[in-house]
Design goal:
The protein is mostly beta strands. It has 2 domains: 95 residues, Alpha/Beta hydrolase fold, catalytic domain (Rossmann fold), CATH 3.40.50.1820; 205 residues, Sandwich (Jelly Rolls). 10% of the residues lie in helices and 35% in strands. Strands 6, 7, 8, 10, 13, 15, 16 and 17 form an 8-stranded antiparallel sheet that branches. A 4-stranded antiparallel sheet has the order 9-14-11-12, with no helix packed on it. Strands 1-4-5 form a 3-stranded mixed sheet, with helices on one face. Strand 15 and strand 16 form a beta hairpin. It is globular, with a radius of gyration of 21 Å.
């Protein structure tokens, strides 16, 4: 829901009926699960991740909001920031004036490997250097054995990273901390033996002890790569450019952590499986195993755009 909140706020700022409407859009984004902010404490745990003191004075904010719009007190909201976010990892609330943050550096982090990025013991890496001639990574997606979703909220993904159908790309250990705050987007150059399949992406914060907490994820059914109003199929041997929306995050990666991206073709039951047939899926009982490919080479450089905040 994070990205939807920012998109709605943007739409209202740009299309509100009056200047008063356009100029009075406020967003508060907590790190808790949906509607979980009421249970925030000095030691809030979301899923399995300790996120510190997430308490926020929502009650007072509600009163000030109603005081402004129901009682006409024009000064009730003047000291409230338009954007208030909780930076995970740093574990602190921060006030901002806009979204995305004006000081953001949107950096492309490219995928690299020697063709064996399968699992966390593979050779997949992430860096700001564009790829040279590198072999593609391949994996087999069997809808009868999909990559499972691990619980709600932040959960350790390290067991999933042992699977050969999960491609893992990581930065080296960070020498200095990095904050990512803003929208996330993954560009993939892919191929498949199936006429239709899915591709998934998951951004992960890897702790020094190997614990890998998920931050955001996304999926694209390839038949909709040109828009959701039409279906286009794949052909074996062809390469297709995909864009996967990973929504947004605000997370600080301290020194000693790694930034990681996991790629696959399923995240079930969070997302429905694609049976790879090109059919409706919901009324089918048979599935096809797909041999899927991720390219990272000149003119086929797959990457994630990371919103780095100085």
């Amino acid at each position: 829901m994070v990205n939807e909140a920012f998109l709605l706020s943007k739409l209202m700022r740009e299309n509100g009926e009056s200047a008063e409407t356009r100029e009075n859009q406020y967003v508060v984004i907590a790190p808790t699960t949906h509607c979980g902010f009421d249970s925030a404490t000095e030691h809030t745990v979301v899923g399995k991740r300790e996120l510190g003191d997430v308490q926020f004075d929502y009650y007072n904010l509600y009163l000030r909001w109603f005081d402004r719009w129901l009682r006409g007190n024009e000064n009730a909201m003047t000291s409230v920031s338009k954007v208030q976010i909780y930076v995970m990892g740093a574990n602190k609330w921060r006030s901002e004036a806009e979204w995305p943050l004006a000081r953001t550096n949107f950096a492309k982090y490219y995928f690299h490997s020697g063709g064996h990025a399968n699992g966390r013991e593979g050779d997949g890496t992430l860096s700001t250097s564009a790829p040279g001639e590198e072999p593609a990574d391949q994996f087999q997606y069997d809808p009868k054995n999909p990559v499972p979703t691990v619980g709600d909220g932040a959960q350790d993904q390290s067991e999933l990273e042992k699977r050969s159908d999960v491609l893992v790309y990581s930065t080296p250990l960070l020498k200095t901390g990095i904050e990512l705050t803003g929208p996330l987007e993954v560009i993939l150059f892919v191929g498949s033996t199936a006429r239709d399949t899915d591709f998934t992406a998951k951004l992960v914060d890897v702790y020094p002890n190997g614990t890998a907490f998920n931050l955001q994820d996304g999926i694209l059914r390839v038949r909709y790569r040109e828009g959701f109003n039409k279906k286009v199929w794949m052909k074996p041997g062809e390469v297709y450019r995909l864009k996967i929306d990973l929504h947004a995050t605000s997370n600080y990666f301290p020194s000693g952590h790694r930034i990681r991206l996991e790629l696959s073709s399923s995240n079930f039951p969070r997302f429905d499986r694609n049976l790879n047939t090109g059919g409706n899926n919901y009324d089918e009982t048979e599935a096809i195993v797909a041999e899927n490919v991720i390219h990272h080479a000149p003119y086929r450089a797959s990457y994630i755009t990371l919103p780095i905040v100085p």
